[in-house]
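Reopening: Glutathione S-transferase family protein still failing for me.
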Amino acid sequence: MLTLFHHPLYASCRFVRLALGEYGEELQLIEEQPWMRRKEFLALNPAGTIPVLLAEGDNPLVGATVIAEYLDETRGAFQRQRRLMAEDSIARAEIRRLVDWYLVKTESDVTKHLVRERALKSLMGSAGGAPDSGAIRAARANVRQHLKYTSWLAATRDWLAGPRLSYADLAAAATLSILDYLGEINWSEYEAARDWYSRMKSRPSFRPLLNDRVRGLPPASHYTDLDF
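Support: Ran it again with your exact input. Result attached.
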């Protein structure tokens, strides 16, 4: 069984969990608080970042996109009907572009700020400091751009990167699911994105994410509702 060091409010970790779920892999989860910099965890990844997957032979694989490429080579290439990468090189480039959009750009513009200020600082105690209301306002102002873009993709394509479910959909769903947990999305304004996200929430791979709970921060009331 594979082991994943993760945190439930890190989009990159959710992305890996969704990918493993789509490939039908059993997974042991170990929740890691990277700001604690545990010696045992740093022995696996001196950078102290998550996600880290202990793959076959307990070899540590570090980073969401590294893990995704590994899964494509070891699972996707042999499960063509379920493969999360395209066969065509141009289509693969588009999938990678959108994975970067959600796990890097949306993370930088929106997700990391809302997660840090609304959740992680309280978990870190006095070391976290007080929430920065300015950072929260800026992140909330940026949400609209990313939801509009997601709606455009969902309205013009069968799935976000093309005709089939791909890593692009998993990256977007992982990111938006955290904002949804925090109640930061008004889905009524983004009909196409809402319908796409409802399809994603209904997939078996998504069920473990709907069971996630963070101490002291319950999810929005609609978070587990598949028909929201």
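The two ends are 34 Å apart (CA to CA). If you still see a failure, please send the error message rather than a screenshot.
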